[in-house]
């Protein structure tokens, strides 16, 4: 057992990032829905390359599996919660603070989207990036956290893989 305070251990950091991600996601969605009243406004220009555009996502990433109808809400939520449970185990088992933080962000984002499905029947998406005739899918803070954290894990894995190769050659 470590004598370090819990928040300085990887699991503590992972849970902190999970809670920060979940809070930022849910607070941003609350403001979009009830502060800005985006459902009534449809779309609001924020920057030349960014709008707040209201989209109720009844499917998963990029609208995939949208044909499941009302059952999709239950199926997607159950799968996301099962994945979140597995990710929590990973947070508590990893010795790496960076891995714990990344997995915490992914878990917080997944839980945030599940909360939307339970509360509203769909995920609240509102960030719409666009420039030079190019337009990306509408997404939210949870989606952003998940994508950024997965990218960080891939970079970490790539860099660690290079170190492992060096150890094999010299070892």
Question: Can you lay out the helices and strands and say which pair or pack?
Answer:
Blueprint lengths: L9 H26 L2 H4 L1 E5 L2 E8 L12 H24 L3 H24 L2 E9 L2 E2 L5 H30 L1
Antiparallel strand pairs: 1-2, 2-3, 3-4
In brief:
The protein has 171 residues and is an alpha+beta fold. The chain contains 5 helices and 4 strands, in the order H-H-E-E-H-H-E-E-H.
What class would the helix/strand composition place it in?
A: alpha+beta
The run of helices and strands is HHEEHHEEH
Number of strands: 4
Number of H/I helices: 5
Mean pLDDT: 88
Low-confidence stretches: none
Radius of gyration, in Å, reads 19 Å
Strand content: 5-15%
Q: Which overall shape is indicated by the principal axes computed on the Cα atoms?
A: globular
- What's the main sheet like? 4 strands, antiparallel
Strand order of the largest sheet: 1-2-3-4
Distance between the termini: 30 Å
Amount of helix: 55-70%
What oligomeric arrangement do these chains adopt? single chain
Explain this structure.
- This protein specifically catalyzes the removal of signal peptides from prolipoproteins.
- A 4-stranded antiparallel sheet has the order 1-2-3-4.
- By secondary structure, it is an alpha+beta fold.
- It has a domain at 22-38 and 63-159.
- The protein has helices spanning 10-35, 38-41, 70-93, 97-120, 141-170; strands at 43-47, 50-57, 123-131, 134-135.
- The chain contains 5 helices and 4 strands.
- The mean pLDDT is 88.
């Amino acid at each position: 057992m470590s004598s370090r305070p819990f928040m300085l251990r990887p699991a503590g950091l992972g849970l902190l990032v999970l809670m920060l991600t979940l809070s930022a996601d849910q607070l941003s969605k609350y403001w979009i829905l009830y502060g800005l009243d985006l459902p009534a406004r449809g779309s609001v220009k924020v920057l030349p390359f960014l709008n707040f555009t209201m989209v109720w996502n009844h499917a998963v990433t990029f609208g995939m599996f949208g044909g499941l109808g009302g059952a999709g809400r239950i199926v997607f939520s159950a799968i996301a919660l099962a994945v979140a449970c597995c990710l929590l185990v990973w947070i508590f088992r990893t010795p790496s603070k960076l891995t714990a933080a990344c997995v915490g962000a992914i878990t917080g984002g997944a839980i945030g989207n599940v909360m939307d499905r339970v509360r509203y029947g769909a995920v609240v998406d509102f960030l719409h990036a666009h420039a030079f005739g190019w337009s990306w899918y509408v997404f939210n803070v949870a989606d952003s956290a998940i994508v950024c954290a997965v990218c960080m894990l891939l970079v970490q894995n790539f860099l660690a893989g290079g170190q492992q190769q060096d150890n094999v050659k010299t070892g």
